[in-house]
TrEMBL record:
<dbReference type="InterPro" id="IPR011951">
    <property type="entry name" value="HAD-SF_hydro_IA_YjjG/PynA"/>
</dbReference>
<dbReference type="InterPro" id="IPR052550">
    <property type="entry name" value="Pyrimidine_5'-ntase_YjjG"/>
</dbReference>
<dbReference type="InterPro" id="IPR006439">
    <property type="entry name" value="HAD-SF_hydro_IA"/>
</dbReference>
<dbReference type="GO" id="GO:0008253">
    <property type="term" value="F:5'-nucleotidase activity"/>
</dbReference>
<dbReference type="InterPro" id="IPR036412">
    <property type="entry name" value="HAD-like_sf"/>
</dbReference>
<dbReference type="InterPro" id="IPR023214">
    <property type="entry name" value="HAD_sf"/>
</dbReference>
<dbReference type="Pfam" id="PF00702">
    <property type="entry name" value="Hydrolase"/>
</dbReference>
<keyword id="KW-0378">Hydrolase</keyword>
<dbReference type="InterPro" id="IPR023198">
    <property type="entry name" value="PGP-like_dom2"/>
</dbReference>
<protein>
    <submittedName>
        <fullName>Pyrimidine 5'-nucleotidase YjjG</fullName>
        <ecNumber>3.1.3.5</ecNumber>
    </submittedName>
</protein>
Length: 228
């Protein structure tokens, strides 16, 4: 099947997102041991903040300041500075999902336009593309921090379509690991959608993707790509 434009989510779609290792690595520079219990405590604050951001209740600055408030007090460092330091650390730790590089290179070589749409922090995105060598593949980078709304709001998907030159939405494929962010948002504007369900989770929502795949090999099958 041919799509002239394909949009990809970033975290856990293009790249593994090793947040525990990233925090552990960053805090080691301050001589702070960071274990599983510490990570669980951090995530108890962090994950609800991301949900509130996705729902449009808070902005990225509030998210960053709030999730690092305790560590900022402990280290006597500004919360926003710690957040930026984490983004740079995460960029260096970035690792593409298996099969991603090969399929992206093949699609790019065939003239398919590729884009990224992410709710992640802007300061992570370009460095991560440079570190992984993925920058050459992508024609468009949509970052919610630079848009009026995050995924799954219609506005960010409509903005992407405008920046693509207003192709018919059904000729654009949105690929992502989140039903409630990537797939819901794509469905709202009439894009074809592909749920990358690497964890083989049951779909217990009423959000129906056009395709469901479990890895990049299965994703490649949609386009007729066979890895060497």
């Amino acid at each position: 099947m041919n799509y002239p434009w394909i949009l990809f989510d970033a975290d856990e779609t293009l790249f593994h997102f090793y947040s525990f290792v990233g925090l552990q690595t960053m805090l080691a520079r301050y001589g702070v041991a960071f274990g599983e219990a510490d990570y669980a405590k951090f995530q108890a604050v962090n994950q609800p903040l991301w949900l509130r951001y996705q729902q449009g209740e808070i902005d990225m600055t509030t998210l960053a300041q709030t999730r690092f408030a305790d560590l900022a007090a402990q280290l006597n460092r500004p919360a926003l500075a710690l957040n930026e330091e984490l983004q740079h650390t995460m960029a260096r730790l970035s690792e593409p999902l298996a099969g991603a590089r090969e399929l992206l290179a093949w699609l790019h070589g065939r003239g398919v336009k590729l884009g990224i749409m992410t709710n992640g922090f802007a300061s992570l995105q370009q460095p991560r593309l440079q570190y992984t060598g993925f920058a050459e593949f992508f024609d468009l980078l949509i970052i919610s921090e630079h848009e009026s709304h995050p995924k799954p709001h219609r506005a960010i998907f409509e903005s992407a379509l405008r920046k693509m030159g207003n192709p018919p939405p059904e000729t654009v494929l949105m690929v992502g690991d989140s039903l409630t962010s990537d797939i819901l948002g794509g469905n709202r504007v009439g894009m074809a959608t592909c749920w990358l369900n690497s964890a083989n989770k049951p779909n217990e929502t009423n959000i129906i993707p056009t395709f469901t795949v479990h890895n990049w090999v299965e994703l490649g099958n949609i386009f007729g790509f066979q890895a060497a």
